[in-house]
Amino acid sequence: MKTRSRLRSVLYSAVTVLVAAVLLEVGASWLMLVYYRATHQQNFETYDTSYLSVVNLARRFSRLVGLSEPAMVLEETSPSPFFRADPLLGYSAAPGVYTHSYARRNGLTDQWEYFRNKVTINPDGSRFVGAPRPGKPTVYIFGDSWVFGSGVPDELTFAARLYEALPDWNVRLLALGGYSLTQAWLTFERLKEIGPDDIVILGYADYFDVRHVVAPSRLREIESWLKRINQPIPPFQLPKATLATDGRVTMSTIDQRCAMLGDYCRGPDPSRQEMTGVTAALINQIAARSPAKVYLLHFAGAPDNPVRRKVSPKVEVIGAVPSEFDSVVQDDIIGFDGHPGPFWHYAISRKLLASIAWKP
Which pTM does this prediction carry? Predict the structure, then answer.
């Protein structure tokens, strides 16, 4: 009887511990889900590598109170540095051939694993998409990291796919991570070779608006991102767009380091109406000065973005946000990073091929 009673006690204890562990995991999963939604976090596998929410929650808490490493090294470039200060654009990529790597810990083995890709920067600062085709017209593509193809090899960017599909055209990819239409405008002003037979494609996403005016939230975002990947904040002077009373855009610069700006980063962003006005003015200013046809590739955000209604008739809008495709196109860098992957770039290239009258 005593043996049976002891066995029953052991079983009850084991069941109690199991139920408690399940309830703890369910509670931790609910807390993590609430956190992901509140912070709009995608690709959570990159930062929370375990399959157990209890473990992920404990890791986040220990980092918060300083009991473990502050952050994982998620990105690195070899050779380094990749970015350099630029007196006009704030920063640019140094010409050369790079290996860009993303790292994460495997959720099962806890070992580091890497995803690597090749990035080639031409002497003029553009990304390599193919050899020049003398005597052919050129497609000039401006944008940020999505357009640049962060995490995607040279040959798989949508610019490279356009180059491959259009043998009678050159393609110049003048995008870079963190850029917006301010850098597009400043680069456009330096390009004296654009002609009437060429095409200009301005990549645009809703989140560009805070970049154009270098809003406090944008600088806080830069600071948070660099802290997460364990890198210092470079002293880059970012171009800042302001809408003048006559409707023109004027440019100034601002240090991207919040520590150098007093209370600026703790202040509110400009109004949504003001930022929309700056964005539309930048687009229209480029279109007014461009001898080539200008297309606005709206690739992320809401299809009813008011910028679309404010652009000049000289600008043709190409809607390419997720809801404007008839299938899901939003892949990523196989869980290592949230930037879109090769399938998205393929879909964007097909959208552009179908939307533009390619007559060299």
Answer: 0.82
